[in-house]
Design goal:
With 330 residues, the protein is of the alpha+beta class. 24% of the residues lie in helices and 35% in strands.
Length: 330
């Protein structure tokens, strides 16, 4: 298969299918498309534009592509997560142009929002296989049973099985998911880490601790009160919080990070350490890695999947899919 990377003659390449989520970044992708199109044309990169206004539409468009067709996504984690099952099933190589609200997986790769030249020039890099996460979310009493994360984003769903999704970056439960839900009420001019910080300040007053059981590869590592837990393939979430600095998307392992019992001031201090990734080894934080992670809560807690809140859940099971995605500009 000819692909537009590593010195290939771009005029003879299979055109990219460019998936543009017009809702990503609160309309940022739509506004920036003319500039991205100009950068593609300047490099002689052939493409077909697939505009989508919803996750369901984007997923359907990628499912209709011929197997192996390279896909370039203009959006954030939510856009990639929406089409990820189709990318894996169709063996579509992926290139990412960060145009979402958080852009955390792209940020881990060193891709800068708005720097289209950098993202496209890196298509000359050697492609690499990166891991993904397969996640099953067991609903809690407050979970939207029709799948609040959006139609078309689910691999499968039933009241017994819960939500089943494939993720590229990671998931969070507890305080960080609650503040992600709160962020929708933040002033529109706040973006990235500033929007996340606003959500944190607004959410900390409602801090609740519940009992969580943390199991990694079948071994119970913790059972006690916690405010926050994350299962990560990438290193960061929330627009730049370095929640899992030891993650490596090519090592075939997941990383789980969680807190022990904390009060409000302690949680604020801990999150201040999370921002630069200096929390591992702190007495209030725990860390482990493995191929499968299970989190069971004594009461349903807010849960987000690649930054999209799916309501409250009582349990998640995540397992790694080693090398599931061919990344062209990682």
């Amino acid at each position: 298969m000819l692909l537009p990377y590593a010195g290939a003659n771009v005029n003879s390449c299979i055109p990219f299918a460019v998936v543009l989520n017009t809702a990503a970044g609160r309309g940022l992708a739509q506004r920036e498309w003319p500039r991205l199109a100009a950068e593609l044309q300047a490099r002689g990169l052939p493409y077909d534009l697939l505009k989508a206004s919803s996750a369901q539409e984007a997923l359907a468009q990628v499912q209709a592509l011929a197997p192996g067709r390279p896909v370039l996504v203009g959006g954030g984690e939510g856009t990639v997560a929406a089409i990820l099952p189709a990318l894996i099933a169709g063996q579509h190589p992926l290139a990412v142009v960060p145009l979402g609200s958080g852009n955390d997986f792209a940020g881990m790769l060193g891709l800068k929002p708005g720097d289209f030249a950098q993202a496209l020039d890196r298509l000359r890099f050697q492609p690499r296989q990166v891991d993904a996460l397969e996640v099953r979310v067991v609903p809690g009493e407050h979970v939207d049973q029709v799948g609040h994360v959006g139609p078309g984003e689910l691999v499968g769903h039933s009241e017994q099985a819960g939500l089943q999704k494939v993720l590229l970056n990671g998931l969070g439960m507890g305080f960080d998911a609650q503040l992600t839900d709160t962020m929708q009420y933040a002033p529109g001019f706040l973006t990235g880490i500033w929007r996340y910080s606003w959500g944190a300040a607004a959410s900390v007053r409602h801090l609740e601790l519940f009992q969580v059981k943390v199991e990694v590869d079948g071994q119970r590592l913790y059972h006690g009160p916690s405010a926050i837990a994350a299962v990560m393939n990438g290193t960061r979430y929330g627009g730049g919080f370095l929640i899992s600095p030891r993650s490596d998307a090519q090592d075939g392992l997941l990383n789980v990070v969680w807190s022990v019992a904390v009060n409000r001031p302690q949680l604020i201090g801990l999150m201040a350490r999370v921002l630069p990734g200096r929390h591992l080894g702190h007495p209030l934080a725990r860390h482990a890695r493995g191929r499968e992670v299970r989190l069971r809560w004594s009461s349903p807690v807010f849960t987000h999947l690649d930054g999209d809140v799916c309501g409250r859940a009582s349990e998640v099971v995540a397992r790694v899919l080693p090398g599931a995605v061919c990344l062209l500009n990682g």
